[in-house]
Amino acid sequence: MKSGFTITAIDIGTTKICVLIAQINEDNSLEVKGIGTSPSKGLKNGIVIDIMKAADSIKSAIGEAEAQSNLKAKNIYVGIAGEHIKSQNTLGRISLTSGSQSCEITQEHIDDAITNSKNNVKLQQGNERLEIIHAIPQYYQIDDQKGIMNPLNMSGFNLSVYVHIVMADGNSLRNIAKCVELAGYKTQEIFLEPIASSKSVLNEVERDLGSIIIDIGGGTTDIAVFFKDSIRFSAVIPLGGTNITQDIAIGMHTSPKDAEDIKINQGSSLAKLVPKDEMVDIDGIAGRIGKKRKLRYISEIIEARMREIFENSYKLLSEKYDLSCITAGLTLTGGASLLSGTEKLAEEIFNMSTKIGYPFLERLSGATEQLDNPKYSTVVGILLQSYDALQEKDDKILKYKYSDPIMNFFKKIADFFKDFS
Questions:
Q1: In contact, 102 and 96? CB cutoff 8 Å
Q2: Which of 385, 10, 21, 19 is CA-nearest to residue 199?
Q3: Residues 90-109: pLDDT tens digits?
């Protein structure tokens, strides 16, 4: 990629919109130039419910990032989550040759096998209105040889690919893109948020040995499993930090804003960690008289909802995946992961080593101090994922360019005349 190339990452969450504008430096590194955030309006659990309000929120966050960076937001990549997301593992297969001689595998063969896997999924009943946003190869098989990670230039008669397919409701995708368009911009590509988050909180060892990532956002909890450096499972649960805030607001008869402050600054996901007699001031709604309540009781409200999130996540994972493959453990990220006691509660339910995932900022330069927080894991992941996708695209173009006989012919002619210049 050229020096000065601009990438914009947008995390469109239920509670906040976050935007990063970054630029490619001469050494091909990423420099964060601007950060913008705004309260999220017009969205619920990852779905647009008021397109104009959502567009205004996006425009406000982008405007803040542009003002800080003195750059125009371009090449915009957006993260998506929500109940409408569906994922599954599937198989794609092609014959490489009909003769008795094996065939050398090209990038075109690999792409054809992945396309076959997509077609197989699209033909399944119930997937008619869904659009594929990711088709991620897990591993390949050449004839009877399994576990191949890169079949390029190898030889065989048949090529199979095991693929993780992520689909989203077509209208939900179009509504998100329309929000960005109404804000005055154009979406380049949409990523599934837990896949993006994994880019910023899991290292290569964790992705290889087997890891679970649970990203607890405002309206949804995103789940992904990685093993042998590829995604094996992903899902979205329609519960998040906003549900906890609402529970406290209703139970304590206070405003959502005050409930959020109590949750973040004083609450705990494990009520037993809170002293029995510790009291907290609760403001009344719209000037009504406030009162004192036991902090442990408030923490019991928090714990009940967090248990629901983790137990639902565990049930879903244990039904769909062999958890004995998870060697590296569980990583929690997202804003709600910072609640006191959350790490211990997750360890208790999952019975595995757990950590809080902060975004890796080593690959970034510039204004990154603010991003050292789990609530920015997704937007940092979107930035890293878009950068890697652009790099991969450039590499593919080069591979096609130099594997094409016609291009090689003209290159040889050019090199011949260059010798005489």
A1: yes
A2: 385
A3: 999 999 988 889 999 999 99
Q: Which of 269, 289, 306 is the last residue of a domain?
A: 306
**CA angle (259, 81, 60) in 5-degree steps:** 65
Residue with tokens 């309260």: 39
Q: CB under 8 Å to 298, separation ≥6 — which residues?
A: 248, 251, 252, 262, 266, 267, 280
Spatial contact of 217 and 14, defined as CB atoms under 8 Å apart:
yes
> In one letter, which amino acid is 40?
S
Cβ atoms of 46 and 220 closer than 8 Å: yes
| CB distance 79 to 180 below 8 Å | no
Q: How far apart are CA 202 and CA 60, in angstroms?
A: 31
Q: At 22, list the tokens.
A: 């970054």
Count how many domains the chain has.
2
CA distance 338 to 373: 9
In angstroms, the CA 92 to CA 158 distance is 11
Averaged pLDDT, 143-162: 95
Rounded to 5°, angle at Cα 150 from 149 and 156: 105
In a domain, 143, yes or no: yes
- The tokens for 215 are 């990203």
Q: What is the CATH number of the domain that holds 281?
A: 3.90.640.10
- Locus of tokens 């959020």: 260
Q: What is the pLDDT of residues 330-363, one digit of tens each?
A: 999 999 999 999 999 999 999 999 999 999 999 9
Q: How far apart are CA 16 and CA 332, in angstroms?
A: 19
Token pair recorded at residue 407: 């291009």
CA separation for the pair 123, 112 (Å, rounded): 17
Separation in Å, CA 300 to CA 274, 276, 282, 305, 373: 10, 11, 16, 9, 25
What lies within 8 Å, CB to CB, of 108 at 6+ separation is none
Q: Which domain holds residue 281?
A: 241-306
In which region does residue 191 sit, left (phi positive, over 0), alpha (psi from -120 to 50) or beta (all else)?
Answer: beta
- Residue with the two structure tokens 């893109």: 177
Query: Which residue reads 């923490």 in tokens?
Result: 299
Q: Give domain status of residue 351, yes or no.
A: no
